[in-house]
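Hi everyone, sorry if this is the wrong subforum. Our group has a chain we'd like a structural model of before ordering constructs, and none of us has done structure prediction before. Sequence below.
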Amino acid sequence: ILFSVGNTKILSRLLEGEFIKYNSIIPEEYNLKVTVKREELLECIERASLMGKDGNTNLIKLNIEKDNMIITSNSQLGMVREEISIVLQGQNLQIAFNAKYLIDVLKTMEEEEIIMELSSSVSPCVIRNKNVDNCIYLVLPVRLSNN
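Answer:
Right subforum, don't worry. Here is the predicted structure as tokens:
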């Protein structure tokens, strides 16, 4: 297809080949399910990520407990500790992420409440809207060293 807009021409071609089977990499089972207010989580992660900008990692840690999630970030600049109320179904979990990826997901979602489905600290996190099933996001965690 070719679009001509004034002096600009935009050309697009159909690519050959088969699109990846993305459904096969999205986990269907999980050990815990977190329901949380999207905007509150986004604000907490954004604040925590300000201290986490140590190199390119932008690492934040989530400590998921019975009624709350504690978000921490450490760097040479200092430490941040944010706490947010959640509804947890399943066991407690500690997991780390690159904050930038979570922020990108949370900014594109529109619902007030979201669901995070997790299995372990090294398994992908699936993020969905709570009420409208119109998106699925998969975010890979950062492996924490056992110091």
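For your construct planning: The chain is about 15% helix and 40% strand. The helical segments are 38-52, 99-108.
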